[in-house]
Amino acid sequence: MKTAILVDGGFYRRRAQAVFGDKTAKERASELEIYCKRHLKTHGENSELYRIFYYDCEPSTKRIYHPFLKSQIDLGKTDLYKWTIEFHSELKRKRKFAIRMGKLADEQAHYNIRNDKVKKLCNGTLKFEDLKEEDFQLQIDQKGVDMKIGLDISSIAYKRQVDQIILISGDSDFVPAAKLARREGIDFILDPLGAHIKPDLFEHIDGLRTCDKAYTDSTKIEKR
Fold it and tell me: What DSSP element (H or E) covers 140?
């Protein structure tokens, strides 16, 4: 069986950092490669890798006003910018990786107070004057990533290039493409990295699978 693995890069980086903490760009790239290949030999399967498709956006170089610091932040000079550029470069060097880039809607970029801090402000357990710089997060939406994932799923399915597609994502926008792939006879597996998905999504996939217990909890029900 030949398998294509599609990775929503922004989702993967957030989940991996939350579960495994900060890593160098090279370490995170190797972590992703190893994790993807674990899908090839699981549940008794022994699949051949067609390609790993990685979807992400180049980091922004825009200057954004930070409401806590009360100054402009040059995103192109931040550690996150340098890390992301290096991370993408590491992935481009790896065999069987195809990098698909969308764009950031950085004209709408802004800083928000983190949701957990907003709740504390509302219930009175945190005062506004006690907020810190790390309580603010940069909000930038991606453009074109979901569309590229959908187009690749459709193209792979119509051309019958693989027998199985594994999508690493927590987004429900993939449903129309997943339905198309299944109609074409492709085995469609979703890996949400332990994140909860809507119950009605189960009917549009052939399997729900996460390959590292660190992402999951004991109440997770796995569909095989």
Answer: none
174-213 pLDDT tens trace? 888 999 999 999 999 999 999 888 777 788 899 999 999 9
Kindly give the pairing relationship between strand 97-104 and strand 187-191: unpaired
Which segments of 93-202 does DSSP mark as H helices, in order? 115-123, 145-159, 175-183
Token code pair at residue 105: 């809607």
Residue-wise pLDDT tens digits, 106-139: 888 899 999 999 999 999 999 999 999 999 988 8
The tens digit of pLDDT for each residue in 139-183 reads 888 888 989 999 999 999 999 999 999 999 987 778 889 999 999
Which helix (H) or strand (E) is 30 found in, with range?
helix 25-38
Which has the closest alpha carbon to 191: 36, 24, 1?
36
pTM of the entire predicted model: 0.87
pLDDT score, position 105: 85
Instruction: Answer whether 20's CB lies under 8 Å from 12's CB.
Output: no
* Alpha helices (H) in 43-100, listed in sequence order: 79-92
d(CA 105, CA 107): 6
- Other C-beta atoms lying within 10 Å of the C-beta of residue 196: 10
* CA distances from residue 68 to 14, 44, 59, 176 in whole angstroms, order as listed: 23, 52, 22, 41
